[in-house]
């Protein structure tokens, strides 16, 4: 596992994921059950940068299948750079499947001038703080980006419905925990909250035969 000064732990290998999963299983019997059932979560690292943050925006509030289809059409159309998005008119952005609102969000991100290199050196909270200033980027999107594109080991996305449902099933709760409640639950899983999310997604997939993340 890699540590970066001022940033903390990074998920950089399958061995790191297994280490975090084993730690969580020792701390919490329900995670031991999830680990036995689903195994260690995969790394699922993605590149960082504009295109991958735009892809996260595209994925908001649509199914995994729809998100992949829309993003595939965005890539085919070459709409994956700030310059291309800012130069595109409404019909061009609408053609891959962007709604009017997501067109506005895509343009806001393209115009934001985010320093993606600088994000790599920021603490987790500052990464989220920086990203949520852009219209269309809420905490969920910022946290997903920090997890998958920056590889941060101690980030959680409690607004994620699949995580909420998986936590309900795994911890045998009467109802899905809401965002604030699940965020509080996840405090006990630090410094491996991102791995805990991975275990919950993996457990969700086994329990429902559905993929909970894009």
Describe this structure in words.
The radius of gyration is 17 Å and the shape is globular. The chain contains 13 helices and two strands, in the order ββααααααααααααα. Helix 1 packs across helix 2 and helix 9 (124-131) packs across helix 10. The protein is mainly α and 214 residues long. The relative contact order is 0.17. The longest helix is centred in the C-terminal third of the chain and has 16 residues, at 193-208. Strand 1 (2-4) and strand 2 (8-10) form a beta hairpin.
Query: Which CATH class of the largest domain is shown?
Result: Mainly Alpha
Q: List SSEs in N-to-C order.
A: EEHHHHHHHHHHHHH
Estimate nothing, just give the exact number of structural domains.
2
Enumerate how many helices there are, as a single number.
13
What topology does this entry show?
Blueprint: E1 2-4, E2 8-10, H1 14-27, H2 29-38, H3 50-58, H4 64-76, H5 82-87, H6 90-94, H7 100-112, H8 116-119, H9 124-131, H10 139-148, H11 161-170, H12 179-186, H13 193-208
Antiparallel strand pairs: 1-2
